[in-house]
Write a structure and sequence with these properties.
The chain has 249 residues and is mostly helical. It has one domain. It contains 8 helices and 2 strands. The protein has helices spanning 4-15, 34-56, 65-85, 93-108, 127-149, 151-156, 166-199, 204-241, and strands at residues 24-27, 30-33. Strands 1-2 form a two-stranded antiparallel sheet. β1 (24-27) and β2 form a beta hairpin. α3 packs across α8 (204-241) and α5 packs parallel to α8 (204-241).
């Protein structure tokens, strides 16, 4: 009797599913994952397009459902930022967090679009996207921390509580933290995409039931992972700049 891992491998081989495989092109000696690039551009265009459309029709009198959703998201982010950083949050943190949430959510749900190719994974299931996203957050966090507290005070915490533990703190802050931020998102979305591809190999007369159930679960996971990435981003900023509750603008 085959184990679950071997069964998955056999099914994937028989159905032509190749986990982690991408449509690639070579450009100036660099291999580009075209499917990830196109899906990323698509997700970014959706977020920008919906945001511009909402902004043009925004009103205080009778806000649209889209405006209410956006205001609820922005209000939630502002509340989290205020709780973690007080009144003097670094410039751009709220905008960055809202943009990350919206972009990751849309990227995670690319496979929910009717007619998408089976086996095509969301761009967030490619480490070549999630690593730069995590790197962007970590760099921005450090820049904000240095600007707020000064380089000497900001990096001085690395020797606390003991100087001998500084290397461990450096590894935690600048290697483990961005890697875990990226891989947490990548792993969950990648696994979800593979499960959808495997379910597609089931007989047609039972296919609708597991697909409907799994897609509903995938919607939940996509939302949850966007939420977690955004929350961790806010937490990292909070740790870097501290809470200055009650400080003046």
């Amino acid at each position: 009797m085959m184990g679950s891992g071997m069964t998955t491998t056999v099914l994937a081989a028989e159905g032509g599913i190749q986990p982690g495989a991408h449509t690639t092109v070579e450009l100036l000696g660099v291999t580009l994952n075209i499917d990830t690039i196109l899906a990323t551009v698509f997700a970014g265009a959706v977020v920008c397009g919906v945001g511009l459309y909402m902004a043009r029709g925004a009103t205080k009198g009778r806000p649209s459902k889209l405006q209410l959703v956006f205001e609820a998201l922005t209000g939630w982010v502002q509340g989290q930022v205020r709780e973690g950083m007080g009144l003097r949050a670094p410039r751009g943190v709220v905008a960055l967090s809202v943009a990350l949430f919206a972009f990751i959510l849309v990227s995670n749900l690319v496979t929910q679009i009717p007619g998408h190719a089976v086996g095509v994974l969301p761009p967030t299931a490619d480490v070549n996207l999630v690593y730069p996203m995590a790197l962007l957050v970590i760099i921005w966090v450090n820049v904000a921390g240095i600007r707020r507290r000064g380089a000497r005070a900001y990096f001085g915490h690395l020797k606390e509580p003991y100087l001998a533990l500084a290397p461990i703190e450096v590894i935690t802050q600048y290697i483990a933290r961005p890697a875990s931020l990226a891989l947490r998102l990548w792993g969950n979305i990648f696994a979800g995409g593979i499960m959808i591809s495997l379910i597609a190999l089931m007989p047609a007369y039972i296919l609708w039931a597991p697909t409907a159930v799994w897609k509903s679960f995938e919607l939940f996971i996509g939302l949850l992972q966007a939420l977690i990435f955004t929350l961790l981003t806010i937490i990292y900023f909070s740790e870097a700049v501290g809470n200055e509750e009650g400080a003046a603008h």
